Amino acid sequence: MHESAIATSILDLVLHALPAPRQRITKITFVAGVLAGIEPSCLEVYFSELAKETAAENAELILKYTDAEFVCQTCGYRELFEGRGRVKIECERCGGLNRLQGGSEMYIEQIEVEQ
Ligand SMILES: [Zn+2]
């Protein structure tokens, strides 16, 4: 399952990023594109399960979404796509062909540790 693999990667990354092994992680901000297809509640469940008895146990996992956008190949017109609704193949300004850009990225934006 998609979310369990992502939760495993997040945990690996944050545990390796810890400056001192005895510090505890309190909060993780994870950014995912709207097209990455992550179910937030599902990710949280996997993460809290996997994080048990590690430095990230009970850490708060914040999920932030980034939008994708349509970019017209002809006139360069850009339109935001929030991942819902119709995929617009044609530019609404000139009728040119749109390309879908972004929205599939995933990265850890911030990790907070206990002071
Ligand atoms: Zn256009």
TrEMBL record:
Origin superkingdom: Bacteria
UniProt binding sites for Zn(2+): C72, C75, C91, C94
Pfam families listed in its UniProt record: HypA
Keyword Transcription regulation in record: no
Single annotated GO MF: nickel cation binding
Keywords: Metal-binding, Nickel, Zinc
Residues given in the record as Ni(2+) binding sites: H2
Gene3D superfamilies listed in its UniProt record: 3.30.2320.80
Record-level GO BP terms: protein maturation
Function noted in UniProt: Involved in the maturation of [NiFe] hydrogenases. Required for nickel insertion into the metal center of the hydrogenase.
Protein family: Belongs to the HypA/HybF family.
Listed PANTHER family: HYDROGENASE MATURATION FACTOR HYPA (PTHR34535)
Protein name from the UniProt record: Hydrogenase maturation factor HypA
Taxonomy of the source species: Bacteria, Candidatus Moduliflexota, Candidatus Moduliflexia, Candidatus Moduliflexales, Candidatus Moduliflexaceae
